[in-house]
Amino acid sequence: MADAALAPAPEDTAVPAPEGSRAAAILLMLLGEEEAAQLIARLDPQEVQHLGAAMFDVADVSEPQVHGVLDGFVARARARTAIGFGADRQIRGIMHKALGQERGENMLARIMPPARSNGLDALKWMDAATISALVEHEHPQIVALVLAHLEPPVAAEVLQAMPETMQPDLIHRVATLGPVTAEAIADLEELLLRPVSPAKASGATRRGGTNEAAQIVNNTRKTAEQRIIKALQKLDRGLARSIEDEMFVFDNLMALDDKNLGTLLRSVDGEILVVALKGADERLRTKMFGCMSSRAAQSIQDAIADKGPMRLAEVQEAQKEVLAIARRLAADGTINLGGKDDDYV
Fold first, then answer.
1. What does pTM read for this prediction?
2. 201, 182 Cβ separation under 8 angstroms
Protein backbone atom coordinates (compact mmCIF):
# COMPACT_ATOMS: atom_id res chain seq x y z
CA MET A 1 0.00 0.00 0.00
CA ALA A 2 2.84 2.35 0.91
CA ASP A 3 4.62 1.62 -2.37
CA ALA A 4 1.40 2.32 -4.24
CA ALA A 5 0.98 5.59 -2.41
CA LEU A 6 4.50 6.67 -3.37
CA ALA A 7 4.15 5.63 -7.01
CA PRO A 8 4.11 8.55 -9.49
CA ALA A 9 0.74 9.53 -10.86
CA PRO A 10 -0.08 8.18 -14.30
CA GLU A 11 0.80 10.61 -17.10
CA ASP A 12 -2.77 10.86 -18.33
CA THR A 13 -3.75 12.62 -15.08
CA ALA A 14 -1.20 15.40 -15.64
CA VAL A 15 -2.59 18.89 -16.06
CA PRO A 16 -2.31 19.90 -19.76
CA ALA A 17 0.00 22.76 -20.67
CA PRO A 18 -1.72 26.16 -20.98
CA GLU A 19 -2.45 27.38 -24.50
CA GLY A 20 -3.27 30.63 -26.27
CA SER A 21 -2.97 33.82 -24.24
CA ARG A 22 -2.11 31.90 -21.04
CA ALA A 23 0.85 30.28 -22.81
CA ALA A 24 1.94 33.68 -24.16
CA ALA A 25 1.70 35.13 -20.64
CA ILE A 26 3.94 32.38 -19.24
CA LEU A 27 6.56 32.93 -21.94
CA LEU A 28 6.46 36.68 -21.33
CA MET A 29 6.94 36.27 -17.57
CA LEU A 30 9.99 34.07 -18.18
CA LEU A 31 11.70 37.05 -19.83
CA GLY A 32 13.40 39.93 -18.08
CA GLU A 33 11.42 43.14 -17.55
CA GLU A 34 13.24 44.96 -20.36
CA GLU A 35 12.63 42.24 -22.96
CA ALA A 36 9.01 41.77 -21.89
CA ALA A 37 8.41 45.53 -22.07
CA GLN A 38 9.77 45.66 -25.63
CA LEU A 39 7.31 42.95 -26.69
CA ILE A 40 4.32 44.54 -24.96
CA ALA A 41 5.13 47.89 -26.60
CA ARG A 42 4.40 46.30 -29.99
CA LEU A 43 0.86 45.21 -29.05
CA ASP A 44 -2.49 46.94 -29.46
CA PRO A 45 -4.32 48.21 -26.35
CA GLN A 46 -6.83 45.32 -26.42
CA GLU A 47 -3.98 42.82 -26.73
CA VAL A 48 -2.15 44.40 -23.79
CA GLN A 49 -5.29 44.19 -21.66
CA HIS A 50 -5.94 40.58 -22.67
CA LEU A 51 -2.34 39.50 -22.09
CA GLY A 52 -2.07 41.42 -18.81
CA ALA A 53 -5.13 39.64 -17.44
CA ALA A 54 -3.65 36.30 -18.53
CA MET A 55 -0.40 37.10 -16.69
CA PHE A 56 -2.31 37.41 -13.41
CA ASP A 57 -4.22 34.23 -14.28
CA VAL A 58 -1.05 32.08 -14.56
CA ALA A 59 0.62 33.31 -11.38
CA ASP A 60 0.28 29.84 -9.75
CA VAL A 61 1.24 27.76 -12.79
CA SER A 62 3.11 24.53 -12.07
CA GLU A 63 6.63 23.68 -13.25
CA PRO A 64 5.46 20.84 -15.57
CA GLN A 65 3.02 23.27 -17.21
CA VAL A 66 5.85 25.76 -17.81
CA HIS A 67 7.91 22.99 -19.43
CA GLY A 68 4.91 22.09 -21.59
CA VAL A 69 4.59 25.68 -22.79
CA LEU A 70 8.32 25.87 -23.58
CA ASP A 71 8.20 22.58 -25.49
CA GLY A 72 5.27 23.85 -27.54
CA PHE A 73 7.04 27.13 -28.27
CA VAL A 74 10.24 25.38 -29.38
CA ALA A 75 8.27 23.01 -31.63
CA ARG A 76 6.48 25.90 -33.33
CA ALA A 77 9.70 27.90 -33.64
CA ARG A 78 11.44 25.00 -35.39
CA ALA A 79 8.60 24.80 -37.91
CA ARG A 80 9.11 28.40 -38.98
CA THR A 81 11.73 29.76 -41.35
CA ALA A 82 13.73 32.94 -40.89
CA ILE A 83 12.89 34.22 -44.37
CA GLY A 84 10.68 37.04 -43.05
CA PHE A 85 13.26 38.52 -40.68
CA GLY A 86 14.90 41.61 -42.15
CA ALA A 87 13.07 41.04 -45.45
CA ASP A 88 12.70 44.78 -46.17
CA ARG A 89 16.44 45.34 -45.92
CA GLN A 90 17.24 42.28 -48.03
CA ILE A 91 14.75 43.19 -50.80
CA ARG A 92 16.06 46.78 -50.88
CA GLY A 93 19.62 45.50 -51.26
CA ILE A 94 18.62 43.17 -54.10
CA MET A 95 16.83 45.97 -55.97
CA HIS A 96 19.75 48.39 -55.55
CA LYS A 97 22.25 45.85 -56.88
CA ALA A 98 20.01 44.84 -59.78
CA LEU A 99 18.73 48.27 -60.86
CA GLY A 100 21.03 50.80 -59.27
CA GLN A 101 20.23 53.16 -56.36
CA GLU A 102 17.82 55.55 -58.11
CA ARG A 103 15.92 53.06 -60.27
CA GLY A 104 15.79 50.61 -57.37
CA GLU A 105 14.18 53.21 -55.08
CA ASN A 106 11.67 54.14 -57.79
CA MET A 107 10.69 50.49 -58.15
CA LEU A 108 10.43 50.02 -54.36
CA ALA A 109 8.17 53.06 -54.10
CA ARG A 110 5.72 51.30 -56.43
CA ILE A 111 5.81 47.81 -54.93
CA MET A 112 6.37 48.22 -51.19
CA PRO A 113 3.26 47.96 -48.98
CA PRO A 114 2.45 51.20 -47.14
CA ALA A 115 4.26 51.58 -43.84
CA ARG A 116 2.20 51.27 -40.70
CA SER A 117 1.28 54.64 -39.29
CA ASN A 118 2.69 55.09 -35.78
CA GLY A 119 0.90 58.39 -35.34
CA LEU A 120 -2.55 56.93 -35.95
CA ASP A 121 -1.75 54.09 -33.55
CA ALA A 122 -1.76 56.70 -30.79
CA LEU A 123 -5.54 57.06 -31.22
CA LYS A 124 -6.03 53.53 -29.87
CA TRP A 125 -4.52 54.56 -26.53
CA MET A 126 -6.61 57.71 -26.02
CA ASP A 127 -10.03 57.91 -24.46
CA ALA A 128 -12.87 59.83 -26.09
CA ALA A 129 -12.46 62.87 -23.84
CA THR A 130 -8.76 63.23 -24.72
CA ILE A 131 -9.44 62.88 -28.45
CA SER A 132 -12.30 65.39 -28.28
CA ALA A 133 -10.09 67.96 -26.56
CA LEU A 134 -7.36 67.34 -29.13
CA VAL A 135 -9.53 67.95 -32.21
CA GLU A 136 -12.12 70.45 -30.95
CA HIS A 137 -10.43 73.41 -32.72
CA GLU A 138 -9.31 71.51 -35.84
CA HIS A 139 -10.82 71.70 -39.31
CA PRO A 140 -13.93 69.47 -39.65
CA GLN A 141 -12.19 67.36 -42.30
CA ILE A 142 -9.42 66.49 -39.80
CA VAL A 143 -12.06 65.64 -37.19
CA ALA A 144 -13.85 63.42 -39.72
CA LEU A 145 -10.58 61.66 -40.52
CA VAL A 146 -10.03 61.00 -36.81
CA LEU A 147 -13.57 59.64 -36.43
CA ALA A 148 -13.06 57.30 -39.39
CA HIS A 149 -9.95 55.81 -37.74
CA LEU A 150 -11.64 55.12 -34.38
CA GLU A 151 -13.71 52.15 -33.28
CA PRO A 152 -17.40 53.10 -33.75
CA PRO A 153 -18.28 53.30 -30.00
CA VAL A 154 -15.33 55.63 -29.31
CA ALA A 155 -16.06 57.63 -32.48
CA ALA A 156 -19.66 58.05 -31.32
CA GLU A 157 -18.49 59.47 -27.97
CA VAL A 158 -16.15 61.91 -29.72
CA LEU A 159 -18.90 62.91 -32.15
CA GLN A 160 -21.31 63.67 -29.32
CA ALA A 161 -18.67 65.80 -27.59
CA MET A 162 -18.55 68.05 -30.66
CA PRO A 163 -21.03 70.97 -30.98
CA GLU A 164 -24.44 69.69 -32.08
CA THR A 165 -24.42 71.95 -35.12
CA MET A 166 -21.22 70.24 -36.35
CA GLN A 167 -22.35 66.63 -35.88
CA PRO A 168 -24.39 66.14 -39.09
CA ASP A 169 -21.62 67.76 -41.16
CA LEU A 170 -19.02 65.48 -39.57
CA ILE A 171 -21.08 62.36 -40.35
CA HIS A 172 -21.52 63.66 -43.91
CA ARG A 173 -17.75 64.08 -44.21
CA VAL A 174 -17.08 60.57 -42.83
CA ALA A 175 -19.56 59.07 -45.29
CA THR A 176 -17.98 60.88 -48.26
CA LEU A 177 -14.36 60.72 -47.11
CA GLY A 178 -12.96 58.54 -49.90
CA PRO A 179 -9.20 57.91 -50.31
CA VAL A 180 -7.04 59.91 -47.91
CA THR A 181 -3.74 61.25 -49.19
CA ALA A 182 -0.44 60.67 -47.42
CA GLU A 183 -0.21 64.44 -46.85
CA ALA A 184 -3.51 64.42 -44.93
CA ILE A 185 -2.31 61.46 -42.86
CA ALA A 186 0.93 63.35 -42.15
CA ASP A 187 -1.06 66.39 -40.97
CA LEU A 188 -3.07 64.17 -38.66
CA GLU A 189 0.05 62.50 -37.29
CA GLU A 190 1.56 65.91 -36.62
CA LEU A 191 -1.52 66.71 -34.56
CA LEU A 192 -1.34 63.44 -32.62
CA LEU A 193 2.42 63.12 -32.18
CA ARG A 194 4.51 66.26 -32.32
CA PRO A 195 7.10 66.11 -33.80
CA VAL A 196 6.64 63.29 -36.33
CA SER A 197 8.60 62.26 -39.41
CA PRO A 198 6.87 63.08 -42.72
CA ALA A 199 5.28 60.11 -44.42
CA LYS A 200 7.40 58.67 -47.22
CA ALA A 201 4.61 56.90 -49.03
CA SER A 202 2.77 58.91 -51.64
CA GLY A 203 -0.23 56.58 -51.91
CA ALA A 204 -3.71 57.01 -50.49
CA THR A 205 -5.56 55.22 -47.70
CA ARG A 206 -9.23 54.30 -47.88
CA ARG A 207 -11.24 55.27 -44.81
CA GLY A 208 -14.79 56.42 -44.16
CA GLY A 209 -17.84 55.65 -46.28
CA THR A 210 -21.51 55.23 -45.47
CA ASN A 211 -20.89 51.99 -43.56
CA GLU A 212 -18.45 53.60 -41.11
CA ALA A 213 -20.68 56.65 -40.81
CA ALA A 214 -23.66 54.40 -40.05
CA GLN A 215 -21.72 52.49 -37.38
CA ILE A 216 -20.77 55.75 -35.68
CA VAL A 217 -24.35 57.04 -35.71
CA ASN A 218 -25.60 53.64 -34.50
CA ASN A 219 -23.44 54.03 -31.41
CA THR A 220 -24.76 57.48 -30.47
CA ARG A 221 -27.67 58.07 -28.11
CA LYS A 222 -31.14 57.72 -29.65
CA THR A 223 -31.87 61.45 -29.42
CA ALA A 224 -28.55 62.31 -31.08
CA GLU A 225 -29.14 59.69 -33.79
CA GLN A 226 -32.55 61.13 -34.69
CA ARG A 227 -31.25 64.71 -34.72
CA ILE A 228 -28.22 63.85 -36.89
CA ILE A 229 -30.26 61.88 -39.44
CA LYS A 230 -32.87 64.64 -39.65
CA ALA A 231 -30.17 67.27 -40.29
CA LEU A 232 -28.43 64.98 -42.81
CA GLN A 233 -31.67 64.67 -44.77
CA LYS A 234 -31.62 68.43 -45.27
CA LEU A 235 -27.92 68.38 -46.14
CA ASP A 236 -27.99 65.40 -48.53
CA ARG A 237 -31.20 63.34 -48.72
CA GLY A 238 -29.65 60.55 -50.80
CA LEU A 239 -26.68 60.14 -48.49
CA ALA A 240 -28.95 60.20 -45.42
CA ARG A 241 -30.99 57.36 -46.92
CA SER A 242 -27.82 55.36 -47.68
CA ILE A 243 -26.64 55.77 -44.09
CA GLU A 244 -30.06 54.77 -42.77
CA ASP A 245 -29.98 51.69 -45.00
CA GLU A 246 -26.61 50.71 -43.49
CA MET A 247 -27.84 51.40 -39.94
CA PHE A 248 -31.00 49.30 -40.14
CA VAL A 249 -30.98 46.13 -42.21
CA PHE A 250 -33.69 43.51 -42.72
CA ASP A 251 -32.26 41.10 -40.13
CA ASN A 252 -32.62 43.83 -37.49
CA LEU A 253 -36.37 43.17 -37.56
CA MET A 254 -35.58 40.15 -35.34
CA ALA A 255 -35.18 42.66 -32.50
CA LEU A 256 -38.85 43.74 -32.70
CA ASP A 257 -41.28 42.21 -30.24
CA ASP A 258 -44.33 40.36 -31.54
CA LYS A 259 -46.68 43.32 -31.09
CA ASN A 260 -44.51 45.79 -33.08
CA LEU A 261 -43.63 43.19 -35.70
CA GLY A 262 -47.28 42.28 -36.17
CA THR A 263 -48.20 45.96 -36.66
CA LEU A 264 -45.46 46.30 -39.26
CA LEU A 265 -46.53 43.18 -41.17
CA ARG A 266 -50.14 44.39 -41.37
CA SER A 267 -48.85 47.59 -42.99
CA VAL A 268 -46.90 45.83 -45.74
CA ASP A 269 -48.45 44.78 -49.03
CA GLY A 270 -48.61 40.99 -49.28
CA GLU A 271 -46.78 40.79 -52.61
CA ILE A 272 -43.90 42.90 -51.29
CA LEU A 273 -43.69 40.75 -48.16
CA VAL A 274 -43.56 37.53 -50.19
CA VAL A 275 -40.58 38.82 -52.22
CA ALA A 276 -38.83 40.25 -49.12
CA LEU A 277 -39.11 36.96 -47.23
CA LYS A 278 -37.81 34.99 -50.22
CA GLY A 279 -34.23 35.77 -49.15
CA ALA A 280 -34.80 36.22 -45.41
CA ASP A 281 -33.10 34.30 -42.62
CA GLU A 282 -35.15 31.24 -41.62
CA ARG A 283 -35.39 32.39 -37.98
CA LEU A 284 -36.80 35.75 -39.06
CA ARG A 285 -39.33 34.03 -41.35
CA THR A 286 -40.46 31.80 -38.47
CA LYS A 287 -40.83 34.77 -36.16
CA MET A 288 -42.85 36.71 -38.74
CA PHE A 289 -45.13 33.74 -39.43
CA GLY A 290 -45.71 33.51 -35.67
CA CYS A 291 -47.07 37.08 -35.71
CA MET A 292 -49.70 36.21 -38.34
CA SER A 293 -52.80 34.07 -38.30
CA SER A 294 -52.11 30.48 -39.34
CA ARG A 295 -54.09 31.04 -42.52
CA ALA A 296 -52.15 34.18 -43.49
CA ALA A 297 -48.82 32.51 -42.68
CA GLN A 298 -49.68 29.46 -44.83
CA SER A 299 -50.73 31.75 -47.68
CA ILE A 300 -47.40 33.62 -47.58
CA GLN A 301 -45.44 30.35 -47.40
CA ASP A 302 -47.28 28.96 -50.42
CA ALA A 303 -46.67 32.17 -52.36
CA ILE A 304 -42.95 32.03 -51.54
CA ALA A 305 -42.75 28.43 -52.77
CA ASP A 306 -44.59 29.33 -55.98
CA LYS A 307 -42.21 32.20 -56.76
CA GLY A 308 -39.30 30.00 -57.71
CA PRO A 309 -35.78 31.50 -58.10
CA MET A 310 -35.64 35.31 -57.98
CA ARG A 311 -32.98 37.91 -58.63
CA LEU A 312 -31.20 39.04 -55.47
CA ALA A 313 -31.64 42.70 -56.42
CA GLU A 314 -35.42 42.18 -56.53
CA VAL A 315 -35.44 40.67 -53.04
CA GLN A 316 -33.23 43.41 -51.62
CA GLU A 317 -35.47 46.09 -53.11
CA ALA A 318 -38.53 44.53 -51.47
CA GLN A 319 -36.71 44.34 -48.14
CA LYS A 320 -35.81 48.02 -48.42
CA GLU A 321 -39.49 48.82 -48.94
CA VAL A 322 -40.37 46.93 -45.75
CA LEU A 323 -37.64 48.78 -43.84
CA ALA A 324 -38.86 52.12 -45.21
CA ILE A 325 -42.34 51.34 -43.88
CA ALA A 326 -40.82 50.33 -40.53
CA ARG A 327 -38.93 53.62 -40.27
CA ARG A 328 -42.06 55.59 -41.20
CA LEU A 329 -44.15 53.79 -38.57
CA ALA A 330 -41.43 54.37 -35.99
CA ALA A 331 -41.27 58.08 -36.86
CA ASP A 332 -45.06 58.28 -36.41
CA GLY A 333 -44.80 56.55 -33.04
CA THR A 334 -46.90 53.62 -34.27
CA ILE A 335 -44.16 51.06 -33.55
CA ASN A 336 -40.98 51.02 -31.49
CA LEU A 337 -37.89 49.71 -33.26
CA GLY A 338 -36.24 49.30 -29.85
CA GLY A 339 -32.57 49.45 -29.12
CA LYS A 340 -30.89 52.09 -27.05
CA ASP A 341 -30.84 52.68 -23.32
CA ASP A 342 -32.15 56.22 -23.48
CA ASP A 343 -35.35 55.39 -25.35
CA TYR A 344 -37.47 55.97 -22.24
CA VAL A 345 -37.83 58.84 -19.75
1. 0.41
2. yes
